[in-house]
Amino acid sequence: MLFVKVCNLAKRFGKGVTVNYIGFTVEREGVFDLTEPNTAGKTATLRILAILKPTSDTVEIGNVGAVSDPPGTGRMLSYLPKDAGAYSHTNCREYLRT
């Protein structure tokens, strides 16, 4: 069962394009690895999933539209940054359980 569905996601700030029409899905209880070079739009993509309104198209988390209920969808996600600070001694699965 799909939990996260992203279709043709784009985000612009002013004249700059931060995320340029990407799409992906994540299964319920799945793990998704968003690994790209610096300035590729990873952080912006995660912020759109949690709190930002996309410039275009579809973001659904648990069958809830991220545009219609950003706080609600943001509470359904966990995020592990590369530099996890106090949690740097744990692996991803352990971090997400805390």
TrEMBL record:
InterPro entries: P-loop_NTPase (IPR027417). SUPFAM superfamilies: P-loop containing nucleoside triphosphate hydrolases. This is ATP-binding cassette domain-containing protein. It comes from Fervidicoccus fontis.
